[in-house]
C-alpha cells in the first residue's frame, strides 16, 4: 500500500504561517503566492486527515494538534537543513549559505569592521544576517531559523555551544550636568536604578546593566524603556536620566556630538562577554569555530 508523506515544502508553509499569523505575510516570507501557500496547507491537512488551522476572516488559529505538528515540523526542517550542513562540512570550510542573528547592541558597532575581513577570508560564504533581540535570536536558533547567533553572555539560550570572543566593558552614562561626583570609576552602589533608561525586555543588555546594581528589589523600576541604544542616548542627552553603555558602542562614536559623560563601573559584573553560539552537535561546528576565530581577531581593544 502506498504511503504518502508530507513534503518539506508543506511543512515550511505550515511553520511560516505559525510564525507570521497571517496567510499573506506567510506567503511573502515563503516567496510564493497566498493561493499557493493555502493550497499546500489544504493538501497537508487532507494528507494527514486532520484540521491544523482554523480559518476565519480576521484570525488564524492553530488547533491543539496543529500546534504539536508545528513543533514536530520545526524539528524535521532543522534536521533536513543539517543534511546539507553535513555535506558542506565535508568540503571547503565556510562556503555556501550561513544564517546568523546578531543582537542590536552588537550589530552596528562590530559588523562594519568584521564583514570586510570575512568577505576577504571566505569569499564563497553567502552570509544572511538578521538583527534581533537576544530572546528572539535564541528562539530562532532553537527553531532552526538561524544557524548561529552573535550575542552577549550571560543569557540563557538553551542547549548550545559557545565560543567566547572578547569582553566588553559596561560604562554608566549621564548628562554632563547630572554626572556623579568625581572623575574615576563609579561604584555600583552609587548608581540610582530608578533613573536608568534601559532597553526593552528581550535585550540582554538590560539584564546585564541591572546585574551591576546592588539593590535587586528595584529591578522592575527602570524609569523608561527604549528600543535601541541610539534612542536611549537621545533620551539621556535630553536630561531624562542615565543609562549603561557597552564600550564598543562608545568606541564606535555613539556619544559624538553629545554632552554625555561615560565612566566605568567598579563592580565584578561590569562587563559582558561577546560570544558566538550554535546548536549543540551541529555538523557545522568546524565552520562556527573558524568564524569565531575570525570574529575574535577583529575584537575591539578595550
From TrEMBL:
One GO MF term: DNA-binding transcription factor activity
Alphabetical UniProt keywords: DNA-binding, Transcription, Transcription regulation
Gene Ontology CC terms: protein-DNA complex
Residue span, HTH lysR-type domain: 6-63
InterPro entries referenced in this protein's UniProt entry, alphabetically: LysR_HTH_N, LysR_subst-bd, WH-like_DNA-bd_sf, WH_DNA-bd_sf
UniProt entry tagged with the keyword Protein biosynthesis: no
Highest taxon above the source species: Bacteria
Family membership: Belongs to the LysR transcriptional regulatory family.
Protein's UniProt name: Hydrogen peroxide-inducible genes activator
Species per Swiss-Prot/TrEMBL record: Sphingomonas baiyangensis
Amino acid at each position: 500500500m502506498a504511503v504518502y508523506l508530507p513534503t518539506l515544502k508543506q511543512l515550511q508553509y505550515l511553520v511560516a504561517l505559525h510564525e507570521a499569523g497571517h496567510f499573506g505575510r506567510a506567503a511573502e516570507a515563503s516567496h510564493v503566492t497566498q493561493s499557493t501557500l493555502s493550497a499546500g496547507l489544504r493538501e497537508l491537512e487532507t494528507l494527514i486527515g486532520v484540521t491544523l488551522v482554523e480559518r476565519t476572516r480576521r484570525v488564524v488559529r492553530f488547533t491543539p494538534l496543529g500546534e504539536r505538528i508545528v513543533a514536530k515540523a520545526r524539528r524535521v526542517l532543522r534536521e533536513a537543513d543539517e543534511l546539507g550542513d553535513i555535506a558542506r562540512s565535508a568540503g571547503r570550510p565556510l562556503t555556501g549559505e550561513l544564517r546568523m542573528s546578531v543582537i542590536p547592541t552588537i550589530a552596528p558597532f562590530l559588523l562594519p569592521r568584521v564583514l570586510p575581513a570575512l568577505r576577504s577570508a571566505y569569499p564563497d560564504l553567502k552570509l544572511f544576517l538578521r538583527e534581533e533581540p537576544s530572546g528572539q535570536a535564541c528562539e530562532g536558533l532553537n527553531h532552526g531559523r538561524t544557524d548561529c547567533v552573535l550575542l552577549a553572555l550571560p543569557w540563557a539560550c538553551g542547549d548550545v555551544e559557545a565560543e567566547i570572543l572578547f569582553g566588553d566593558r559596561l560604562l554608566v552614562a549621564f548628562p554632563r550636568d547630572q554626572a556623579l561626583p568625581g572623575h574615576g570609576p563609579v561604584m555600583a552602589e552609587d548608581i540610582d536604578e530608578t533613573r536608568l533608561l534601559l532597553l526593552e525586555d528581550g535585550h540582554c543588555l538590560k539584564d546585564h546593566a541591572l546585574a551591576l546594581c546592588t539593590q535587586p528589589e528595584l529591578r522592575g523600576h527602570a524609569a523608561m524603556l527604549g528600543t535601541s541604544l541610539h534612542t536611549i542616548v537621545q533620551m539621556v542627552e535630553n536630561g531624562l536620566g542615565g543609562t549603561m553603555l557597552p564600550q564598543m558602542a562608545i568606541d564606535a562614536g555613539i556619544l559624538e556630538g553629545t554632552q554625555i559623560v561615560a565612566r566605568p563601573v567598579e563592580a565584578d559584573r561590569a562587563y559582558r562577554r561577546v560570544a558566538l553560539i550554535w546548536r549543540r552537535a551541529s555538523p557545522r561546528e568546524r565552520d562556527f569555530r573558524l568564524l569565531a576565530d575570525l570574529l575574535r581577531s577583529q575584537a575591539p581593544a578595550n
